[in-house]
Amino acid sequence: MTFLPLLCLFVRLNPTSSMKMNWCSTTWSGHCCEATFGWTYHFSNQTMNWTQAREWCQAHFTDMVVIQEQAENDYIVSILPNKDRTPYYWIGITKNHINETWRWIGNNSTWVGEHSWAEKEPNNKHVAEFCVELYVNNRSNRGKWNDETCANEKSPVCYKAQCNDTSCVNGRCWETINNTTCLCEPGYEGDKCQTAVECPPLSQPGNGDFHCSPGGRTFRTTCRFKCHTGFVINGSSDVTCEANRTWSDPQPFCAAVKCPPLPQPADGNHSCSDEGQIFNSTCHFKCHWGFFMMGSSAVTCAANGYWTGPRPACTSNYMWSKPFVLVEIHWDAI
Ligand SMILES: [Ca+2]
């Protein structure tokens, strides 16, 4: 085996394109290579039947060449040496039956351009022309396709994939003739889809706190809100950052616990520190002139949503109110 010098040139495939092609050409055991930032294309000058050609491609590279658009077809034609006559080159599109769709075996795609076939092709001339050759010559059918009998011998054209398992962290690697692109899964961005998108910052709720899973406010992070004693959460306690950069629910807030309504006592009235009679509100009771209070003169709305004591009553009978005082004095004395 003889290794010949590697020649690398930098050329632009398209003068309007900013993408620079890394064009390498070498001769190694009778075949050459063409390198781009995406797939690299390879061919052999040796001829073989279609099945052998595919095996050769798979043994040395990724598979027989896949063409996904007209520009790729044109590009491949431009790098292959001209041939005066058949045999030309095998490309990786085939079918198993006359009624089947032509399919690229490298990636199972089905692209066929409007002007891909040569004139009067595919003609299935020999009944089972289920493989395709690419004309590379100086005639009018240059770059066109012809369906052919797979047992015929032609030169294989192969590709080597540049994408691998680590090309895109959270996405699919897409190869083109002059680039590889990561198509990111929803929720990720960056040239390798390595960055999770972020949701807007959350703010600390009044009378409460929140805690987020590792990631802060990135995609799939969940934050849980909790309220301080005497406050209840209003809204969803858990919010999750979604792929569209928004939280799954509005940020909840903490509302003070409410105690049951406290009606005015008969023959008296009360005044409360808060109209809403909520957590920590205290209501002070007064009895009208000539009435005596039976019970505590103030109750407070507790964290559990109950008042700290029963509402006092106002009585006109001094003796009804007195025993409570006497009892208290009695126990205090002991
Ligand atoms: Ca044909």
TrEMBL record:
<dbReference type="InterPro" id="IPR000742">
    <property type="entry name" value="EGF"/>
</dbReference>
<feature type="signal peptide">
    <location>
        <begin position="1"/>
        <end position="18"/>
    </location>
</feature>
<dbReference type="InterPro" id="IPR050350">
    <property type="entry name" value="Compl-Cell_Adhes-Reg"/>
</dbReference>
<keyword id="KW-0245">EGF-like domain</keyword>
<keyword id="KW-0768">Sushi</keyword>
<keyword id="KW-0325">Glycoprotein</keyword>
<feature type="disulfide bond">
    <location>
        <begin position="184"/>
        <end position="193"/>
    </location>
</feature>
<comment type="subunit">
    <text>Interacts with SELPLG/PSGL1 and PODXL2 through the sialyl Lewis X epitope. SELPLG sulfation appears not to be required for this interaction.</text>
</comment>
<keyword id="KW-0732">Signal</keyword>
<feature type="disulfide bond">
    <location>
        <begin position="227"/>
        <end position="254"/>
    </location>
</feature>
<dbReference type="Pfam" id="PF00084">
    <property type="entry name" value="Sushi"/>
</dbReference>
<comment type="function">
    <text>Cell-surface glycoprotein having a role in immunoadhesion. Mediates in the adhesion of blood neutrophils in cytokine-activated endothelium through interaction with SELPLG/PSGL1. May have a role in capillary morphogenesis.</text>
</comment>
<dbReference type="InterPro" id="IPR016187">
    <property type="entry name" value="CTDL_fold"/>
</dbReference>
<dbReference type="InterPro" id="IPR001304">
    <property type="entry name" value="C-type_lectin-like"/>
</dbReference>
<keyword id="KW-1015">Disulfide bond</keyword>
<dbReference type="Pfam" id="PF00059">
    <property type="entry name" value="Lectin_C"/>
</dbReference>
<feature type="domain" description="C-type lectin">
    <location>
        <begin position="36"/>
        <end position="159"/>
    </location>
</feature>
<dbReference type="InterPro" id="IPR016186">
    <property type="entry name" value="C-type_lectin-like/link_sf"/>
</dbReference>
<dbReference type="InterPro" id="IPR035976">
    <property type="entry name" value="Sushi/SCR/CCP_sf"/>
</dbReference>
<feature type="domain" description="EGF-like">
    <location>
        <begin position="159"/>
        <end position="194"/>
    </location>
</feature>
<feature type="disulfide bond">
    <location>
        <begin position="163"/>
        <end position="173"/>
    </location>
</feature>
<feature type="domain" description="Sushi">
    <location>
        <begin position="257"/>
        <end position="316"/>
    </location>
</feature>
<dbReference type="InterPro" id="IPR000436">
    <property type="entry name" value="Sushi_SCR_CCP_dom"/>
</dbReference>
<protein>
    <recommendedName>
        <fullName>E-selectin</fullName>
    </recommendedName>
</protein>
<feature type="domain" description="Sushi">
    <location>
        <begin position="197"/>
        <end position="256"/>
    </location>
</feature>
<feature type="disulfide bond">
    <location>
        <begin position="287"/>
        <end position="314"/>
    </location>
</feature>
<keyword id="KW-0677">Repeat</keyword>
